């Protein structure tokens, strides 16, 4: 029987060429699976158009999976609770969608009795790592095929290949940017941005084009570490993210321009637009400042970069990531309340207020006014004992004396 392969299909040039190439070179049957993770599919292009392209490339079947709520409720949700930003900056846009796609590839492979899954990634990026490590974590028996790592075609060769096989692609040989997008934002690579000194052109931006000069204020309500309402209106997380992407993005907020370390040892210049992701993480982290007990907060802050690194590295489905999830989830029981954000064009965001019924902020303890409830006298003995070791050290060994003469 011919081997069956389930391909993660985007409708773009590479995955369309991959269908025909695998059939010709590897003599397999290809089933195309398009997982909708909130990528803004070009409105001129329907799922029917994409389906026709897959079939004309030679696929025996085409399946669309709507994973937008799953992307929001499981993947973006956990990233918010973890305040996840790889290398302190990148909120894991592409890294979060790959495990969603992988999960559906595996389940479609089971449904169609396939023995392999395939992706269109090259050998230079992180996404191949995420597809392969993820698939093997969920289905150690499935093979993973990566035709684009084998075919040795340039982009122009691929366009010729598609033309030869009469695959109706829309890309031209002068493709400039490589863009990956989902609910959590957009990742833009290639073109003139490959020179880290060159300022990114404005052309590929879509989410963060400034369309207002007025400041915009929003209130985000959180329940147990998750955003549940925007300006008092309860929304699904997917809708909340979409709405905030628009409102914050219209002020020009949400761009990142960085050089990052890929898993495969390459430094690359990346440009992102992710207004909602950055705003929600900032708001969430701010509410934690108000509500988390100090030791828990400090420990969580130490673990967050590790969580982001694991997810970036394709380890969404791994025992350490699961263990960190359990810790992070436990810390979120009292992270409920409201955060006020102000977006000031062009592109500035500030947290301007926060409040919560579970806040550990105690006005009586904090105030210097008459309402003060703090027992000042207690501090005398507390500080004496706290500093006793240093005082003893200074007296016997470390005393450097008074400030230098003349100062
Ligand atoms: N550098 C980012 C990451 O590794 C973005 C990758 C974008 N992927 C793409 N196929 N264009 O997560």
Provide structural commentary.
- This protein has 407 residues and is of the alpha/beta class.
- It has two domains: 3-172, Rossmann fold (3-Layer(aba) Sandwich); 181-354, Argininosuccinate synthetase, chain A, domain 2.
- 42% of the residues lie in helices and 20% in strands.
- It contains 14 helices and 14 strands.
- It has helices at residues 13-26, 47-57, 68-81, 93-112, 127-138, 147-150, 155-164, 237-249, 275-291, 294-312, 319-331, 363-366, 378-386, 388-398, and strands at residues 3-8, 28-36, 61-66, 116-118, 143-145, 178-182, 185-189, 216-223, 226-230, 233-234, 255-261, 267-273, 337-344, 348-355.
- The strands form three sheets. It has a five-stranded parallel sheet, with helices on both faces. A five-stranded antiparallel sheet has the order 10-9-8-13-14.
- α3 packs across α9.
- The longest helix is centred in the first third of the chain and has 20 residues, at 93-112.
- The chain is elongated.
- The chain starts with a strand and ends in a 9-residue tail after the last helix.
- The model has no long low-confidence stretch (mean pLDDT 95).
- The protein binds arginine (ARG).
């Amino acid at each position: 029987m011919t081997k069956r392969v389930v391909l993660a299909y985007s409708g773009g040039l590479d995955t369309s060429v991959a269908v025909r190439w695998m059939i010709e070179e590897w003599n397999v049957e290809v089933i195309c699976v398009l997982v909708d993770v909130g990528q803004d599919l070009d409105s001129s292009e329907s799922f029917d158009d994409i389906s026709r392209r897959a079939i004309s490339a030679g696929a025996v079947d085409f399946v669309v999976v709507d994973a937008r709520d799953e992307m929001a409720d499981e993947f973006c949700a956990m990233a918010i609770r973890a305040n996840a930003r790889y290398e302190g900056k990148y909120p894991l846009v592409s890294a979060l969608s790959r495990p969603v796609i992988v999960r559906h590839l595996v389940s479609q492979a089971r449904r169609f009795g396939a023995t392999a899954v395939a992706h269109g990634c090259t050998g230079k990026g992180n996404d191949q790592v995420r597809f392969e490590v993820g698939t093997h974590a969920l289905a150690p028996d499935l093979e993973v095929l990566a035709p684009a790592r084998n075919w040795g075609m340039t982009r122009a060769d691929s366009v010729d290949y598609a033309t030869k096989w009469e695959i109706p692609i829309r890309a031209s040989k002068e493709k400039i940017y490589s863009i990956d997008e989902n609910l959590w934002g957009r990742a833009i690579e290639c073109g003139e941005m490959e020179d880290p000194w060159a300022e990114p052109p404005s052309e590929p931006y879509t989410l963060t084009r400034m369309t207002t000069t007025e400041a915009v204020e929003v209130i985000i309500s959180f329940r147990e570490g998750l955003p549940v309402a925007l300006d008092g209106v309860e929304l699904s997380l997917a809708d909340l993210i979409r709405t905030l992407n628009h409102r914050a993005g219209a002020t020009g907020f949400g761009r990142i321009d960085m050089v990052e370390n890929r898993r495969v040892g390459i430094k690359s210049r990346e440009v992102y637009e992710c207004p909602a992701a950055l705003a929600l993480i900032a708001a969430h982290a701010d509410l934690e400042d108000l509500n988390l007990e100090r030791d828990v907060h400090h420990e969580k802050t130490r673990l967050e970069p590790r969580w982001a690194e694991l997810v970036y590295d394709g380890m969404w489905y791994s025992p350490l990531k699961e263990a960190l999830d359990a810790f992070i989830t436990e810390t979120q029981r009292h992270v409920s309340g409201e955060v006020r954000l102000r977006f000031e064009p062009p592109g500035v965001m500030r947290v301007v207020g926060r409040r919560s019924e579970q806040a550990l902020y105690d006005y009586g303890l904090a105030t210097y006014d008459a309402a003060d409830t703090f027992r000042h006298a207690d501090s005398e003995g507390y500080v004496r004992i706290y500093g006793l070791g240093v005082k003893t050290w200074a007296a016997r060994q470390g005393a450097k004396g008074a400030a230098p003469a003349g100062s």
